[in-house]
């Protein structure tokens, strides 16, 4: 009787393990499907990806810094020209 009970318990444990594996696989499949659907939805809305946003942001920061430098150089040149015109 003991070996029969052990066999039933072993079969039950195997069945539970297989069921847990199936649930885990189904969960991964659902996660993959949801991610794909969300990505399609975002693409249809023309939403930019984070990497693209960060790249454009860095370009804008660099352009703003260059613009500030050029503005300072231009103001310095205009000041020199103003001094030169006043001296003549």
From TrEMBL:
It comes from the Bacteria. This is BMFP domain-containing protein YqiC. Keywords: Coiled coil. The keyword Coiled coil applies. Residues 53-87 form a coiled coil.
């Amino acid at each position: 009787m003991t070996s029969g009970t052990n066999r039933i318990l072993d079969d039950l444990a195997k069945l539970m393990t297989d069921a847990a594996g199936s649930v885990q696989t189904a969960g991964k499949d659902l996660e993959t499907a949801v991610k794909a659907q969300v990505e399609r939805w975002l693409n249809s809305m023309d939403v930019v990806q984070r990497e693209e946003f960060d790249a454009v942001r860095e370009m804008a920061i660099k352009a703003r810094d260059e613009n500030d430098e050029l503005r300072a150089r231009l103001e310095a040149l205009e000041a020199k020209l103003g001094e030169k015109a006043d001296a003549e």
